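In response to the reviewer comment on reproducibility (Comment 2.3), we provide here a single inverse folding case reported in full, input and output, so that an independent group could reproduce the run without further information from us. The structure tokens appear first.
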């Protein structure tokens, strides 16, 4: 089986720093300004991130997807769901002192709201909310669109934490059984793209990500399809 991804996998982030605008910063960033990331301990370890339990019928599935996406991103250490951090009451504050003792650098708090979810990132070192955003969750829980929206939320969290956006919302094109398939980055929602009547190979994404080109071997010769 051959695979091709839309976005290159990024290397492991060894240390997050507070990056301020300095001479020549325009070579690093598209726009001048200040970039904030979580500040954490010495030794080059990845920041420890804990995702709080999520209330609601779809809460466990949502939490699992977010945790897995962050883990696959390989820029943070996702702490076990059994980590003994007390879950705050609705509207309550995270126990930052307890989080620090457990080696947690960031706490992700997600609450389901009408047609969506509010995602909050707590900076344990600063003892405050670092980022907050409400996202839409289209469709029923665990449908393709619902899961893709969650992957987008994971990518946003990774950007908040590390300064580089994640790739969980990417899709993968691969060849299996002579057909081109598309699948989500976590292996869900695999669907054939080419017909079974031809032998397809060599898929490639358009830079926009909106189309795929591939070669098909047919009785009359080879053909290119978009």
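Designed residues, in position order:
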């Amino acid at each position: 089986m051959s695979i091709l991804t839309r976005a290159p996998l990024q290397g492991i982030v060894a240390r997050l720093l507070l990056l301020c605008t300095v001479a020549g910063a325009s070579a690093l960033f598209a726009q001048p300004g200040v970039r904030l990331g979580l500040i954490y301990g010495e030794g080059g370890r990845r920041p420890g991130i804990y995702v709080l339990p999520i209330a609601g019928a779809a809460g466990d599935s949502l939490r699992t997807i977010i945790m897995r996406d962050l883990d696959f991103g390989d820029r943070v250490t996702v702490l076990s769901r059994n980590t003994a951090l007390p879950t705050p009451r609705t509207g309550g504050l995270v126990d930052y002192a307890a989080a620090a003792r457990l080696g947690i650098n960031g706490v992700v708090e997600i609450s389901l709201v009408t047609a969506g979810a509010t995602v909050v990132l707590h900076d344990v070192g600063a003892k405050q909310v670092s980022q907050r955003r409400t996202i839409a969750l289209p469709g029923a829980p665990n449908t393709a669109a619902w899961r893709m929206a969650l992957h987008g939320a994971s990518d946003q969290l990774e950007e908040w934490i590390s300064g580089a956006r994640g790739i969980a919302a990417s899709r993968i094109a691969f060849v299996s059984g002579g057909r081109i398939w598309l699948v989500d980055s976590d292996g869900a929602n695999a669907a054939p793209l080419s017909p079974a009547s031809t032998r397809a190979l060599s898929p490639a994404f358009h830079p926009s990500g909106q189309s795929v080109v591939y070669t098909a071997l047919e009785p009359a010769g080879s053909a290119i399809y978009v």
